[in-house]
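FAQ: What does a multi-protein file look like?

Like this. Sequence, then tokens, then the next protein.
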Amino acid sequence: MRCSVERGWGWGRCAPSPLLLLTLLLFAAPFGLLGEETRQLLEFDSTNVSDTAAEPPGRPYPPYSLADFSWNNITDSLDPATLSATFQGHPVNDPTRTFANGSLAFRVQAFSRSSRPAQSPRLLHTADTCQLEVALVGASPRGNRSLFGLEVVATLGQGPDCPSMQEQHSIDDEYAPAVFQLDQLLWGSLPSGFAQWRPVAYSQKQGDRASALPCHASPLHPALACPLPQSPIVRAFFGSQNNFCAFNLTFGASTGPGYWDQHYLSWSMLLGVGFPPVDSLSPLVLGIMAVALGAPGLMLLGGGLVLLLHHKKYSEYQSIN
């Protein structure tokens, strides 16, 4: 089947299969999805930072360049049954042995149907989406209160402008406790593609509320020219463009839980074509709303019945002269 291919996440009238999406991301991540010529894992010293919204969130350490990482053979982790694969790497030159017992991993998974993962933040996915999960495990921080971050680069759409970044708020936090926000990038007004994530990371593998870390995204800005991977698949989907927009993601705050607890950090993003999945209210929230809205009505109805029966009782009383 032939499809018209647009720049960015644009596939014209037909969307790629889950396996094709997975193949695309395997060729593009981590080199084509994160970073530009620096391709950085960021680290900040937040020891003396009291403002959780500070930018940057602390004194920056020299960043780790993903271009200088050694990555595993992807075929060793490719699982056709779950449509997933994992990139795992560490710096080639590590004189301080920061990554002696640690690694940075990118797990890519495609989906064949609509559902939610068991792992928080349980983003709703459809058959034309892929999930990218980033995990930093076992690496020694260079400070007692180190915060980590990623530089994320987005391709341009059909026009010269960066994708639009939006925040969506909800009263429903059943799938990601205490997180009432969803962030997303949209390519084009229709849109032709999207990236979607909740502004939360986790400092423990189970990803519960106690280990939740705030995730802050900086504004989008044009990035320096960066060559795409030389894969024919990547070239077919993204064209020959070399202009990008970038933003930084930072995870955690100087107070509360952090990477320093168990030397673990994970965060996930959903990527797809067309319109992003839209969350509906969960059954739990619908039930609470029904009770909250229905209780006053039932009380009024019950009060009316009591008054009616009380009035009827007195109306049936016959006075004795």
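And here is the next protein:
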Amino acid sequence: MGNSGSAVKVCTDHQGGINWLSLSPDGQRLLTGSEDGTARLWSTADSQCHGHFQGHESYITFCHLENEAAFTCSADHTIRKWDVVTGQCLAIYRGHTSIVNRILVAKDYLFSGSYDRTARCWSVDKEKQIQEFRGHRNCVLTLAHYSSRDVLEEEEEEEEEEEKVSRDLLVTGSTDCTVKVWWVSSGRCYQTLLGHTGAVLCLILDAPNRELFSGSTDYTIRTWNIVTGEQLKVFKEHQGSVICLELVNRHLYSGSADRTVKCWFVDTGERIQTYKAHKHSVSTLKYHAGILFTGSGDACARAFNSRSGVLQKIFRGHKFIINCIQIHNELLYTASHDGTLRIWDIRGICKRNKRLSRLFNNKVGCMPSVAVQGVLQ
């Protein structure tokens, strides 16, 4: 059944639910965005709040943290950039006409997706809109970015003379059941990926392998060739909406409203593990050191051995859905709609899992396959 854990620290500064949690690339800070219309900056060294970003006129839907700047988007139709040292608002990006629900920072670009049916590209430094991507028939929910240099051969790039100025592409998923790929420089739609029969909730990009994975309310995950637009595989075993995805070493983890996570081997499409025990939808997941961590609508986080599927620990304490999790220095951070950020020590479970992995690697070569599951349990 797994051992229950208690938080080493509970941060209660927010006055509303936390919708997102972002970790800086250097691992020194965390950013939370809340229903109270503010964002807060936390140090991973002392778990203290070191910044309070105020200015949005409605709730914050999503946030993103770089080492020197923080970005937030809001139901007030704007995106803001903040100085992580002074807390000063450095820029306000205006142009969307409805809720901005997702942002993505890549290179010098800031991308945003909105309920106004558009995605937009902004210059991070100049506070200026560079491009608008118009063509979806409903809300833009999720974003991904890549460069054609990552996926196209030289001769294929020569065919795209029109886009020579910039080889950046934006991928958008929408409630109109489609995924679209756009040239950033022109705003032209390069591909429309058709096949889903429900809203596209999540995207994962594997540019080196030219693959895109999309999860949907139609209960499926689909794999696409991002150069040709061809649909490669359909993963159909979930019995509810696919809410979140994570790709690790050609293994795809999918969290669903059916209360399970499934692991798929991407190369064959085979479902190789199902992680159960959740009492509500799986809202977020994160793979770390052979452990699959999940957050759920049942207000609990859980840790599973990723190979065996065995539940190793339950983290109890939140009152409402866990919207996001992050992991740094063997600490698990969980952000919930109850307004709290909770911090959990996972050193013990990580050590235990390393021992199990060593045991597995030593035993698996000399054991019949039917016995492998028993080794890990």
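Q: Is there any per-entry metadata?
A: Some entries carry free-text notes. For the entry above: Residues 347-363 form the longest helix (17 residues).
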